[in-house]
């Protein structure tokens, strides 16, 4: 596969080419293409929001709404499940190919992030002033509401399909069409909104202990390794699955936890090597290349 399609990785189009089949060299790299494509189009929305706020707001929210509605419409028209796991034509990876890896389906959280950043940039002082005037009780109430709502949304997105998955494993009924359409339409947007609320809460003094924990400098170390972890983790999981000589069951939970922690630790161990001997040296060479000459 890589022999024929390696060039799509270099051009960051392996989630688009070939159009009618899945031919992704390095399985997890499809999201890197999405990320690059979002990065390329982001200035269009940011410039509009900065120079023409009303038009930028309409264009950004309109694009976000169209993407969410398109996800729901395709799910209904093609009779897809809420995720590719429930795809009845999973062998051909139809839902994965048509929806899961496509940028016009995955863009809502990115647009929500742009809108959240713009709103905070524009109204940061106002937000902080209004929250600063609140009494301790009111501030606590507002913080509990924001964190309660955002965490509930995140819980629904991550674990909302848990019982549907259990029914699928027991060969019972699958999610209904309305459930599938609702999830595909709202899940990505909900996740983006929840994260935006939490970031704004932390930046306006409503983060509480969560904000303090997220401010620890130790996260800077892990943040520099996340890209390498993303690149290697899927390879480790594939290696683990390929060498199994028995059926693997997601029970008991203790066994799954041990495997998860092992994969996590090995991913970070390999990430340290990649960062030290590849990513950091190349980053240093890049800085030397673009450094302005001194007189």
Largest sheet: none
- Strand content range: under 5%
Distance between the termini: 51 Å
Helix content: over 70%
Based on Cα principal axes, name the global outline: globular
The chain-level structural class is: mainly alpha
Number of strands: 0
Number of continuous helical runs: 13
* Run of helices and strands: HHHHHHHHHHHHH
- Taking all Cα atoms into account, the compactness measure Rg is 22 Å
Output mean pLDDT: 90
Low-confidence stretches: none
Explain what this protein looks like in three dimensions.
The structure is a single chain. This protein has 13 helices and no strands. The protein has helices at 2-10, 30-51, 53-78, 94-100, 103-106, 108-132, 136-159, 162-169, 177-203, 208-214, 218-223, 226-242, 253-290. It is globular and about 60 Å long. The relative contact order is 0.08.
Provide a quick synopsis of the model.
The chain is mainly α and 295 residues long.
Using brief descriptors, characterize the structure shown.
295 residues; globular; mainly alpha
């Amino acid at each position: 596969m890589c022999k024929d399609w390696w060039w799509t990785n270099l051009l960051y189009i392996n989630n688009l080419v070939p159009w009618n089949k899945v031919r992704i060299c390095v399985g997890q790299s499809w999201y890197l293409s999405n990320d690059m494509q979002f990065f390329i189009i982001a200035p269009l929305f940011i410039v509009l929001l900065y120079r023409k706020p009303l038009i930028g707001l309409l264009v950004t929210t309109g694009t976000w709404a169209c993407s969410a509605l398109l996800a729901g419409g395709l799910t209904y028209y093609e009779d897809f499940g809420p995720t590719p796991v429930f795809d009845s034509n999973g062998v051909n990876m139809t839902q994965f190919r048509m929806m899961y890896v496509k940028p016009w389906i995955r863009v809502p959280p990115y647009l929500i992030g742009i809108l959240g950043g713009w709103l905070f940039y524009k109204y940061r002082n106002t937000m902080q002033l209004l929250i600063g005037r609140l009494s301790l009780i009111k501030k606590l109430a507002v913080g509990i509401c924001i964190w309660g709502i955002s965490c509930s949304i995140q819980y629904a997105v991550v674990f909302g399909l848990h019982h549907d998955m259990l029914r699928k494993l027991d060969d019972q009924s699958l999610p209904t069409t309305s459930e599938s359409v609702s999830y595909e339409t709202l899940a990505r947007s909900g996740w983006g909104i929840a994260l935006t609320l939490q970031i704004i809460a932390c930046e306006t003094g409503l983060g509480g202990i969560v904000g303090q924990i997220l401010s620890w400098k130790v996260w800077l170390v892990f943040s520099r390794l996340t890209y390498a972890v993303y690149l290697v983790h899927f390879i480790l999981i594939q290696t683990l699955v390929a060498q199994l000589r028995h059926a693997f069951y997601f029970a008991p939970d203790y066994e799954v936890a041990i495997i998860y922690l092992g994969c996590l630790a090995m991913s970070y161990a390999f990430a340290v090597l990649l960062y030290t001997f590849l990513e950091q040296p190349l980053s240093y060479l890049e800085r030397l290349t673009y450094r302005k000459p001194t007189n």
